[in-house]
């Protein structure tokens, strides 16, 4: 049973930084793509960053040059380093995994088979 568990969310002032982590169970197939999706109540879900098994990445334009996604396969952990945070980055952030191309998550066409429970990020 694959599990994804996010951590690292919190409240921060505009311009600050946070690093999200997503620990996943070892049985997650190593060739899946992983990513981060965020959602604000009443708004559409947004794919913000994705990484495939080879380390290729894609980012939403809204976070490019501010967010960095990475994964450590030995530690079974996905990360999202978020710098220069803005109030509009406030959202629930979900770790996702599945068999899709990274750009598909950003485009909103990926079917994310696995989801974490989410971690709240609030920027004021």
Quick structural overview:
5% of the residues lie in helices and 46% in strands.
Task: Describe it.
This protein is mainly β. The chain contains 1 helix and 11 strands. The strands form 2 sheets. Strands 2, 4, 5, 6, 9, 10 and 11 form a 7-stranded mixed beta sheet that branches. Strands 1-3-8-7 form a 4-stranded antiparallel beta sheet, with no helix packed on it. A hairpin with a 5-residue loop joins strand 5 and strand 6. The protein is globular, with a radius of gyration of 13 Å. 36% of the residues are buried.
Q: What is the strand and helix layout of this fold?
A:
Layout: E1 4-7, E2 10-12, E3 18-24, E4 33-39, E5 46-51, E6 57-59, E7 67-72, E8 77-82, E9 91-98, H1 102-107, E10 114-115, E11 119-123
Parallel strand pairs: 2-11
Antiparallel strand pairs: 1-3, 3-8, 4-5, 4-9, 5-6, 7-8, 9-10, 9-11
Spell the H/E element sequence: EEEEEEEEEHEE
Determine the strand fraction and express it as a percent band.
Answer: over 45%
Radius of gyration from the alpha-carbon trace, in angstroms: 13 Å
Separation of the first and last Cα atoms: 37 Å
Q: What is the percent of helical residues?
A: under 10%
How would you classify the helix and strand content by structural class?
Answer: mainly beta
**Quaternary organisation of the protein chains:** single chain
Largest sheet features: 7 strands, mixed
Counted by DSSP, the helix tally is 1
């Amino acid at each position: 049973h694959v599990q994804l568990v996010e951590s690292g969310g919190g409240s921060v002032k505009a311009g600050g930084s946070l690093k999200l982590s997503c620990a996943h169970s070892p049985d997650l197939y190593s060739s899946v793509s992983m990513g981060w999706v965020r959602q604000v109540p009443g708004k559409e879900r947004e794919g913000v960053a994705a990484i495939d098994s080879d380390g290729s990445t894609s980012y939403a334009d809204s976070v490019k040059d501010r967010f960095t996604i990475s994964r450590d396969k030995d530690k079974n952990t996905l990360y999202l380093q978020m710098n220069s945070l803005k109030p509009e980055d406030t959202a629930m952030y979900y770790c996702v995994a599945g068999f899709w191309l990274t750009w598909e998550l950003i485009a909103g066409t990926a079917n994310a088979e696995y989801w974490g429970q989410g971690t709240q990020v609030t920027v004021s």
